């Protein structure tokens, strides 16, 4: 029997119970932080030598020298050539769809000319070099390689550098094949905080990157936070979540399985269903009981559902949408007859899966949009990973002589109001009096 | 005599000297971090009561109760009504130009339908509530209020909450007037780490925000870093910088004053000129010597130029552009006859000021583009503050029955390859076999 929480929006303590359910604070372990700081300092000071030492110690294989840290480029294409055809086809189909969606996201520059002949604009450029962290061992997800690498290449990043730890020298062929498909330019068999430090600061062998993306364990996440500023990073993700809003007309087995698909990630994952039909919630609960024992990862699913899941009864669809906006979920399924009308009421969500046929799992792998999404209510202020994360903007200003003269007075008045007279005089040099 | 560094790209140690010159690491002071953590914990635990205590202690005035922390909305419009007409006009001119530029940045959603009838898209929504930190006292810059607030309002942020400390109860009328013009919705007379904590977590009186932007001292910056994740934040800025590339034909007094305009911000500011004409560098050096004693902030300027400034001789324009890309400056002036050709070679810069008439000071106040820009080489991976920082994206996926059936096989194959069978089964429920 799962003990998934049952909440009603009419409960007097609903707000508090929901807050408790959603609460997630990544504990910043002082021990981890200190270890990571030491690793970063060692990589900065000793470069490849430290990288070899840490790899031997943490990944339990001994690189014979620094050149052994690099993966031969042909290694990726060989993996692609040797994986089963069905997997290769699935990876290529997914990659094509991810690329097609990403191409819609590419930002373009623009400019305009004002009445005084001053040109104003925005120039868009790709990042030069990006590092992609890929976890090794069991949690190696080829889909994550596609999702992180393809937007970078669509943005025009010239060099995409993958790092992947090889515990006891073991490589995941699907990960390498995905890297080949996604267009990874260079790869290194390193991982952990030492790989993040190498990507951020560079070593003799590993080139310094401008941004580091990709998931990792607590050491990787802590290292990414530590090097932020030196390089850009993507969001540090919390546990994965799904929120489903259902009108009570979807097959309850489908909804149960969608809840499982999040819960199977790990014990901290969060699966929540909101419906405005009490009987339907019971039918989903019955599906959960029936299907759970069939699942390969039933223990993980049960823990996640018991500790962080919920079945919530709302008064109606509008109230369900209001609760969804409060939760600001990573994944939001709108399993209703008219998903467009409901989607119009949603202000905060990483990805919205509309209609009964749009299982979140389709989005996780191959629908096209990215599966790297804001977690832990950060969809209130942040966005899915996209091409725009690998592009940046520069403002362009080109004042004509007339334009500079027109602006000089305003700039000078404001600069003097702030006590910055060099600013004022710099503007005044281009002003009308100086001209005359 | 200033002792501004002279470098030549042909010097054997040029790379090292340039790296040393650019090196900037914000020292993370453990004492500051600990104080900030305590303040955040107190605000979270005690709310307004702690806010009143800290305000009395740090800002040296005693709020009679929590209501005294809020600024009356009429206070802003009164300030606007009472400032000198020239300043009001300058603020309004600047605001109109900043707004006009920002409107070009607004992102719009999009969608498309694939061959199987699956709709894919991206929905764009504004942030609900944004907190704007404005420093009090001497470093109170009304231009920063405009630059931070206007993009948020153009994005459609419904509630913009300003906090501004009032040391010994003193308010800056220009800051309040700028807030009125920019459309700030609510304002509080609080500052420091306690104001950041209040904006991040909310108190009885101060509403919790989704993002916090705006400059501040080391306590404010440390607090913003600490609450990042709970809320979004803008970049934590380093010292301001200007890099000027000049072909030797601009009045050297103009260039000297442009270098001063950065250097006068503070002793850590960085002003660098690159030219490919050794005589011209000497003429600028002479202008610096002649003009410096006239400057109100000559001591600050001299320290900044001596400690962090440089006059660099390059071989030619192309080499100067390459050095500029290595520096990735916050502000880049292209003081040359053909700025467009040179701008095409620039990959990394926060803002590019093109041609001899485009003084950086014009951009600081009123050209239109934002003056909140990436510092300390972060233009390699980040962008000026803009409307897009106050919008976020949600992915939209609406699979048709046929589309879901087409995607199910791919998703299932990839999910099983990753050992995630609930994902696979969730996709398969929508697949062709299940349909039949």
How does this model look, in words?
The structure is a homodimer of 436-residue chains. With 436 residues, chain A is an alpha/beta fold. Chain A has three domains: 5-26 and 238-367, 3-Layer(aba) Sandwich (Rossmann fold); 30-233, Nitrogenase molybdenum iron protein domain (Rossmann fold, 3-Layer(aba) Sandwich); 399-434, no CATH class. Chain A is 46% helix and 16% strand. Chain A has 18 helices and 15 strands. Chain A has a six-stranded parallel β-sheet, sandwiched between helices. In chain A, α2 packs across α8. The longest helix of chain A is centred in the first third of the chain and has 19 residues, at 85-103. The first copy, chain A, is globular, with a radius of gyration of 26 Å. The model of chain A has no long low-confidence stretch (mean pLDDT 95). β14 of chain A pairs parallel with β15 (391-398) of chain B.
């Amino acid at each position: 029997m799962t003990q998934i929480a049952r909440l009603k929006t009419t409960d007097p303590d609903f707000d508090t119970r929901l807050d408790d359910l959603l609460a997630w604070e990544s504990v910043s372990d002082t021990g981890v932080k200190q270890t990571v700081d030491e690793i970063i300092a060692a990589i900065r000071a000793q470069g490849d030598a430290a990288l070899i030492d840490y790899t031997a110690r943490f990944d339990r294989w001994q690189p014979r020298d620094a050149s052994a840290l690099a993966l031969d480029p042909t290694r990726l294409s060989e993996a692609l050539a040797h994986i089963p055809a069905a997997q290769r086809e699935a990876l290529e189909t997914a990659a094509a769809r991810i690329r097609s969606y990403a191409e819609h996201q590419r930002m373009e520059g623009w400019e305009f000319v004002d009445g005084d002949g001053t040109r104003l604009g925005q120039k868009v450029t790709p990042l030069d070099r990006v590092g992609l962290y890929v976890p090794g061992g069991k949690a190696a997800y080829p889909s994550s390689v596609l999702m992180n690498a393809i937007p970078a290449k669509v943005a025009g990043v010239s060099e995409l550098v993958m790092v992947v730890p090889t515990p006891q020298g073991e490589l995941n062929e699907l990960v390498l094949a995905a890297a080949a498909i996604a267009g990874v330019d260079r790869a290194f068999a390193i991982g952990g905080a030492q790989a993040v430090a190498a990507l951020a600061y560079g070593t003799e062998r590993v080139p310094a990157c401008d941004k580091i993306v990709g998931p990792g364990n607590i050491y990787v996440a802590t290292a990414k936070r530590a090097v932020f500023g030196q390089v850009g990073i993507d969001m540090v993700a919390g546990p994965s979540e799904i929120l489903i809003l259902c009108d009570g007309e979807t097959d309850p087995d489908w909804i149960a399985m969608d809840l499982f698909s999040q819960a199977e990630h790990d014990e901290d994952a969060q699966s929540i269903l909101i419906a405005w039909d009490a009987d339907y919630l019971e039918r989903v609960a019955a599906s959960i009981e029936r299907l759970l024992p069939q699942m390969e990862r039933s223990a993980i699913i049960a823990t996640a559902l018991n500790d962080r899941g919920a079945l919530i009864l709302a008064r109606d669809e509008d109230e369900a949408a209001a609760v969804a906006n409060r939760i600001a979920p990573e994944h939001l399924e709108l399993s209703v007859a008219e998903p467009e009308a409901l989607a119009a009421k949603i202000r905060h969500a990483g990805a919205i899966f509309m209609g009964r046929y749009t299982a979140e799992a389709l989005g996780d792998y191959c629908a096209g949009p990215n599966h790297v999404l804001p977690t832990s209510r950060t969809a209130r202020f942040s966005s899915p990973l996209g091409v725009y994360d690998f592009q940046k903007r520069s403002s362009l200003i080109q004042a004509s002589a007339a334009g500079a003269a027109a602006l000089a007075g305003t700039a000078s008045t404001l600069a003097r109001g702030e006590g910055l007279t060099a600013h004022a005089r710099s503007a005044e040099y281009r002003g009308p009096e100086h001209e005359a």
